[in-house]
């Protein structure tokens, strides 16, 4: 046992001895709970985040904030000292989403396999190593049979967290459904420009019924993909102002004055 | 001196081809033995070593001779300068001679000019001029000797005036954590090599671990049929304590190797080592994430998908909003160009508090700091002005470290150690 481990053991024993009544054994003694960074989502998850060995699936149409939530979760994990690896199936995300916070205690790596189907072997390698606290898989292809349970087992054994943004080949511990509710627009000299968006998140944890919809406000409207695939339809008229389809959809018609 | 001339002087002279490897091995052995009697040793040439004496007495000389017993005839000379010590050693064939400061000049003046190691041709010219003793050379000044007989003679004359800079230095024993395996049957493929490489990696790692060291550079030399050699190098960002991780990293590199000829032998060594880090742990948790396992996983991903497919995002502080970050190659084992210093990056950086920081396995003090320079133009974020600063510093060890700081107008500066080299 190294000197540092001995010191930690001694400190742990002393704290337990001195504050026997005050020390409450943590519910997950072998790792930290990584919050998502979105308070509304954390409130909806049992435990306030993702614990070691747990899995989550982020569901939502393109533009609903799935990538933003995954990015926030990765940055929160890096901040908490858990190394993060992101498996970007399409290789289309822009780098700014994966810049770790300035005071992060761990790094974020991004793997962009050339063949989309390679994302599952990559997930296997990263989970099997046990060296990453959070593995994020973005928009994966359908997995071959047996891959899902194996990844869940690896995540549990190695005390890693696995987040899949898209369709997951396993039953996750937590499921977050995202929906774009409204986009706020600013008047600009060249026409209306988006200023913020309101998202709706519904969280469901294994064994706990799905929570009601909670509203999440996001001001980060930067493009996060280089080659967007299917996108939400642009409801603006060619002039840049809101078109008739948008006006009909209630909240989309709200403008910020 | 020609071989014929040497034979004419020594009838029992035996000759052998120069074998640098054998000579280096003999030097290592000499240093290993001498380290028991002195902390500072410098090997100089094939048959001479400068050693800092611990006490000037016959007992210490006897210990030196005991330490080197079996090597051959040992002459030990003690003197106030290296020139006097060498002359004293030359005065005895197999024994020791001590010359103190008071008698040094008289002793040296009586010695033949050969003890000054001037060189054959100049020595012959000086002898022809009637200069055969050191005392006779002392009558001339170094400048005029240099103009007439060359810089070697001038240098020898300066050494007589206590300007002898030859000193023993701190010895650096070459790492003996090397395993060499000769194969009875040559291997045509790399697959079976893994079975032999595993125990070799374990042995190298265990040898280093016993000294609280880990390998940061592993070198595997594959000796091929026909005398050719193929070298595979693996560098790691953190010292490896586990032989299995070393094996995995080497296997990843071997996957890319195409053999030009069957393997006859291999040699595994650790040319660069670093103090082992304490095991990562959390206060109320178990063990932390294993750095070596992460390096293995990243190496596997690189091997499978290509080096450019594993990246990290780096922030960019200038330019339009969408270009505020860029991709860069992920940190990991990279072979630096020849001559590059073996910088070791600290990930995450070690924060400096009250002049101390946790670097290379222990808490070290900043001894000296270089000029602080601005790394990027200032920028404003959330109404606060920020500047990036960098500086070089020397920490005890001694280590050369690179410091960086983010100076925020709203709070105190925070300095961090981002890389170090010993």
Q: Which SSEs are present, and which pair or pack?
A:
The complex is a heterodimer of chains A (257) and B (422).
Chain A (H helix, E strand, L loop, with lengths): L2 H16 L20 H6 L10 E5 L6 H14 L4 E5 L19 E4 L7 H11 L4 E5 L8 H12 L2 E5 L8 E15 L2 E15 L8 E5 L25 H5 L9
Parallel strand pairs in A: 1-5, 1-6, 2-3, 2-4, 4-5
Antiparallel strand pairs in A: 6-7, 7-8
Chain B lengths: L2 H7 L10 H15 L6 E4 L3 E4 L6 H10 L7 E4 L3 H10 L3 E4 L2 H9 L10 H9 L5 H4 L4 H8 L1 H10 L17 E10 L5 H18 L2 E12 L4 E12 L2 H12 L8 E13 L15 H15 L4 E6 L9 E5 L14 E8 L4 E4 L2 E8 L3 E2 L4 E3 L2 E12 L3 E10 L5 E8 L1
Parallel strand pairs in B: 3-4
Antiparallel strand pairs in B: 1-2, 5-8, 6-7, 6-8, 9-10, 11-18, 12-13, 13-16, 14-16, 15-16, 16-17, 17-18
Overview of this structure, please?
The complex is a heterodimer of chains A (257) and B (422). Chain A contains six helices and eight strands, in the order ααβαββαβαββββα. With 257 residues, chain A is an alpha/beta fold. In chain A, strands 3-2-4-5-1-6-7-8 form an eight-stranded mixed beta sheet, with helices on both faces. The longest helix of chain A has 16 residues, at 3-18. Chain A is globular, with a radius of gyration of 21 Å. The relative contact order of chain A is 0.16. Chain B has 422 residues and is α+β, with helices and mostly antiparallel strands. Helix content of chain B is 30%, strand content 31%. Chain B is built from twelve helices and 18 strands. Chain B has helices at residues 3-9, 20-34, 58-67, 82-91, 101-109, 120-128, 134-137, 142-149, 151-160, 193-210, 243-254, 291-305, and strands at 41-44, 48-51, 75-78, 95-98, 178-187, 213-224, 229-240, 263-275, 310-315, 325-329, 344-351, 356-359, 362-369, 373-374, 379-381, 384-395, 399-408, 414-421. In chain B, the strands form five sheets. In chain B, strands 11, 12, 13, 14, 15, 16, 17 and 18 form an eight-stranded antiparallel beta sheet that branches. Chain B has a four-stranded antiparallel beta sheet with strand order 5-8-6-7, with helices on one face. In chain B, α10 (193-210) crosses α11 and α11 (243-254) packs parallel to α12 (291-305). The relative contact order of chain B is 0.06. The mean pLDDT of chain B is 81. The chains are: A alpha/beta (257), B alpha+beta (422). β3 of chain A pairs antiparallel with β9 (310-315) of chain B, so a sheet runs across the interface.
